[in-house]
Input
Amino acid sequence: MYQAHFGLSEAPFGIAPDPSFAFNASTHQEALNTLLVAVTSGEGFIKITGEVGTGKTLLCRRFLSVLDPSYVMAYIPNPMMDARGLMMSLGAEFEIPIPKDAGLHEQLRVLNAFLLLLAQENKKLVVCIDEAQAMPLLTLEALRLMSNLETEKRKLIQVVLFGQPELDEKLSKPAARQLRQRITFEYRLGSLNKNEVRHYLAHRLRVAGLKGDALFSNRAARLLYRTTAGVPRLLNIVAHKALLSVYGEGGGRVKARHVRGAARDTPSTKPLFPWVWAVVPMALLGVAVSVGFGAGLL
Output
């Protein structure tokens, strides 16, 4: 909606996990390094946790994109299924013909045969499970059983669990103790710090085609950090709304008042002071902007 107004080729603050906009924040780089070291070392289970909006899915996609061709990869975005459903999903990912009426034992046998075939070809299998906190304990246990297959030298399957902190709660239960003991590498994703927020804004605008001066004033950038606590998804939402506010006014730069108004319109943000929202109204965006919100652009 506002791209042409600001000289952009695309929207800079979408919430989809687009790898082309990936920002090399310290916490993400450390997490990626942990993943690469763990996989190279042949570890069976790796765990990455982080609060909502910290970029776990984007990290997963970055990780899969840098693995070399010796790795065969599978990505399970929605693991809220029973054990048989998970095995069928893995079969579909690897194009393995598993009969729909096969029991769990038969599914494991077919998948294990596939793993042995990959090992003979000197290939390694990596399975990334996104939103792993939603996976039932019995399904996690089936995944552990599948990971039992190994040679004298290494594991034949490596599993990376990406999840919210609730995953830690699930794994702390006695029924999950065997799997918990197999997680040898883990990392907790954090938010962006104050300096990274400023660079993050500039990076995404540059990728989106900005050629001129910074669109966010220093005060606006500092306020974005304070209201979003550096959570990337919240940063994107508030920054997007702030740009819409400036566009609605016909202006050319985001100021602190635009961020205040955008944050007020975003319930998940952190209020600065109780009185701020009472005295600083949301900038008038106009009918077009209101339609944009209603159309689900955010």
Summary: Residues 232-249 form the longest helix (18 residues). Residues 274-298 have pLDDT under 50 and may be disordered. Residues 29 and 42 are 20 Å apart (CA to CA). The radius of gyration is 23 Å.
